[in-house]
Design goal:
binds fe (ii) ion, mainly alpha, Four Helix Bundle (Hemerythrin (Met), subunit A), 0% strand
């Protein structure tokens, strides 16, 4: 998946979430560019850790909102967050063990996980929050 620039179609219309999504996409794009440029493994590992930590913070933001507003799809959404964090954790482990990630493989670092998640999970959450808020 090529580097993706933010577009309004990804907005979920909740300011805090959209702001974090823009930053998240930027980090994913940076990582994509870094892998294409075959940057040093240690630098890549640091970038991956930064992405993982920010993703964790972002998911916690969404989950707090889900709990606060008693979001009916909370469990399915949280499960998806856990799965994505596990994938990122596996990537960090793989790189720490000397592997170099590629695209569309077990060590996939493509951008589509973020966009697919935003479209399939975060948009319905945004719609819900706008209805209740
Ligand atoms: Fe989410
Ligand atoms: Fe999100």
């Amino acid at each position: 998946m090529p580097i993706v620039t933010w577009s309004e179609e990804y907005d979920v219309n909740v300011e805090k979430i959209d702001k974090q999504h823009r930053h998240l996409l930027q980090l994913v794009n940076d990582l994509h560019a870094a892998v294409e440029a075959c940057i040093d493994k240690n630098k890549l590992r640091k970038m991956l850790i930064e992405l993982t930590e920010f993703t964790r913070t972002h998911f916690a933001t969404e989950e707090q909102l889900m709990i606060k507003h008693d979001y009916p799809e909370k469990n399915a959404h949280q499960k998806e967050h856990k799965m994505l964090l596990r994938h990122l954790g596996d990537l960090v482990t793989a790189v720490s063990n000397g592997k170099y990630p590629t695209f569309y493989s077990d060590y996939d670092v493509s951008t589509d996980w973020a966009l697919v998640h935003i479209n399939e999970y975060d948009k319905p959450l945004g719609d819900f929050l706008n209805q209740v808020g």
